[in-house]
Amino acid sequence: MEFILQKWTLSSKEVTLEESIEKTGRFGTGFLTTHLLSKAVSIQGIVHTKKNNFYKFNFLLNRNGNTIDELVSNIDSTWKEFYNSAVLINTNFDKSKYNTSFSYNLESPEQKKIALIGIEEFKKLIPYVLIFIPKIDSIQIIDNTKSSNTTFINNHKIIDKFIIPIVKKENDIKSIIHILKYSGENTTIACEVKKKENNYHFVNIDNIPKIFCDFPLIGTEKFHLPIIVNSFHFNPQTERDGIWLKGVDDEEVIENQKLLTEAINLYKELLPQISDINFLDFYNIIETRMPHTSEKYFDALWYKESIQNVLRKFIQTQNIVEVP
Asked: Which of 112, 179, 266, 307 is least crowded, fewest Cβ atoms below 10 Å from its Cβ?
C-alpha cells in the first residue's frame, strides 16, 4: 500500500515566505509526525540553489535506526543519495505540475490503519484549513485503495454575510460544507453550520481542535472554547498540540493571551449579529468549561478570570434560547 499526499493549489493571497516559515512550520514537527506512517520516505522535488540553478531530485529519506550511530549512518547515506540524484533542469519548469511528493511505503496492518484514520481526520479538518489559509484554493485526496478521488475547493465566496461555502467533490457526488467565519485584526473564529431550508444550524465541534495556527493544533479538542479560534500569530508549543498560556513575563505567553482575548471579543461581537436571524442550535457554541490541558503550560487563574468568567457573563445576556 502506498500513500501519496499530492497537491494543493495556491492563490496570490499569502504572507511573505519568511514569515510563513517562522510561524506556520516551526520545528519540523509536522513532517516528523508522518513518521508514524513510515520512517522511510521517498521524496521527489525541485531545489533552487543560491547560484540560481534548479535541480530535480529523487531520494529515499531513511530515518530508521535503533541507535544514534545507526540513525547517523542512514542520514549520511540519505545525503549522498540526494546529491547523486540531483539533475540540473531548465528554470522554466511548470510550477503548476506535481513537482513535489512524499511517498510512504506502508507494509504493516498498523501502518495502514494509521494512514486511513489520518485521511478521515484530514478530510474533517480540510474545510477549516481552506478558510484559514486563503492562499490554498483546493486540496485533492486520491485514495487508490477505494478508487476514490475527493477534492475540496474554496472559491473565496461569502454568502449571507458570514458563510463561506466549501465545495466537496467525492467522485461524482458534489456537496457543500458551510463554514461560518468572522475575522478581526489578528484572529478568526469559525464553526461549521448545516443549511436546512433558509436556516443555518450550528454543528457540534466537540471532536474538532479548538485552536488553529493556520493548521490545526491536534490535541486541543478538549480545550473547550465555544468556537474554533485561528491565528497565524499564535505561538504553539513545540509538539504543536497547544499554545503557551503560562508565564507572567514571557512574551510569547503574553501574545497568546492577547490573541485569545481578541478571539473572545470577536465572539461577543458576532453573537448579537446572528442571534435574531436565521441561525439555530446555539447550544453547540456556548461551551465554557475549563480546558483539559497540561498545567505545565496553562495558567488556570488567568483563564478563569479573563476568558471563562467573561464568556459566561456575556452568554447569560444573549437571546439564544430557542422557544417553540
From this structure: 112
The predicted model scores a pTM of 0.82
Instruction: Please report, for residues 64, 110, 180, 245, 260, the alpha-carbon distance to residue 267 in angstroms, rounded to integers and kept in the order given.
Output: 47, 41, 12, 20, 11
Sign, Cα dihedral of 67, 73, 74, 75: positive
Residues in a beta bridge with 40: 62
Grid coordinates of 82: 540526494
Q: How far is Cα of residue 165 from the mean position of the Cα atoms in its chain?
A: 18
C-alpha cell at 254: 503574553
